[in-house]
Amino acid sequence: MTEGNFVDYIKIYASSGKGGRGSAHLHREKYIAKGGPDGGDGGRGGHIILRGDKNMWTLFHLKFKRHFRAEHGGDGSSSRSTGHDGADVIIPVPLGTIIRDADTDEILHEVIEDEQEIILLEGGKGGRGNWHFKSSTNQTPRYAQPGIDGQEGWYRIELKILADVGLVGFPNAGKSTLLSVITAAKPKIADYAFTTLKPNLGIVEYRNHQSFVMADIPGIIEGAAEGKGLGHHFLRHIERNSTLLFLIPADSEDIKKEYEILLNELRKHNPELLDKDRLLAISKSDMLDDELKEEIKQELPEGIEALFISSVAQQGLMELKDKLWQMLN
């Protein structure tokens, strides 16, 4: 899913370095005609390494460079000199990145900590020089080991955004407006469905200089778990949020039904999502009087706490922050 500089899915080719050859050198020196074997070992090939970087939030840097090749190891030489190790290739990735085998779709690694390093492909070992093979019965071995080949393959790198609170709702439910009001984020806002085509992150300032991270996930439609609309592209981002804030507008025809559809899409995508803490916010409620609010309360879904908020009129937002902070801690 790509919009502008936000990239959360990329396919790369990587190959680690081949190990250097061992040397089959025999020692020669003035007055020493037969000095015996002294060939050094080959150096190892370079690794392909993934490193977590907390300052990154997209895979955009991999959009135009998708082939990574590490350096081969140097060959061994005389006087038991070992060849140099091939230079490693380090690929920085944002936290929340998963790496899949492009052929089998199997998840191989997950990067969730800053400075965490994962060796995606190990470089080949260097071959041993001939001095390793010297024995009482073979004092001048004229052979050495070749280096071991590196590894190669295609990999899919996907980003699942790490945030404390994920906003869940239909397109046009007011998620971007809420994020723009309670954080410094500047998401695109307009009066039509699918304004948001990429997840937006914002830091919510709370009391006593505390804060938490909120993610505006693009709107869900019925059938999203099967890939309809923007389906799989954004449902995976919800997996990493510890708390889910369901946002349904007050002018919705049936709040309870909308909530059930959203819940069902999450269940079909990944049943474990239903184990997360959930809170329901009725947005755009500045248009309601007390009587209408009481009527709506009678029709709200059971088993989830609900709050009435208005991003535009700044109503109920502090109460919402308090409740979310309480749930997160």
UniProtKB/TrEMBL annotation:
Cofactor: Mg(2+)
Record: residues binding Mg(2+): 176, 196
Chain segments annotated as transmembrane: none
Residue ranges of every copy of the Obg domain listed in the record: 4-162
Localization terms from the record: Cytoplasm
Coiled-coil positions: none
Binding site for GTP: 169-176, 194-198, 216-219, 283-286, 310-312
GO MF annotations in UniProt: GTP binding; GTPase activity; magnesium ion binding; ribosome binding
GO cellular component: cytoplasm
PROSITE patterns in the record: G_OBG, GTP1_OBG, OBG
Domain of life: Bacteria
Domain OBG-type G: 163-329
InterPro entries: G_OBG, GTP-bd, GTP-bd_Obg/CgtA, GTP1-OBG_CS, GTP1_OBG_dom, GTP1_OBG_dom_sf, OBG_GTPase, P-loop_NTPase
EC number: 3.6.5.-
GO biological process, any: ribosome biogenesis
HAMAP family: GTPase_Obg
Role summary: An essential GTPase which binds GTP, GDP and possibly (p)ppGpp with moderate affinity, with high nucleotide exchange rates and a fairly low GTP hydrolysis rate. Plays a role in control of the cell cycle, stress response, ribosome biogenesis and in those bacteria that undergo differentiation, in morphogenesis control.
Subunit annotation: Monomer.
Protein name: GTPase Obg
Organism: Tenacibaculum mesophilum
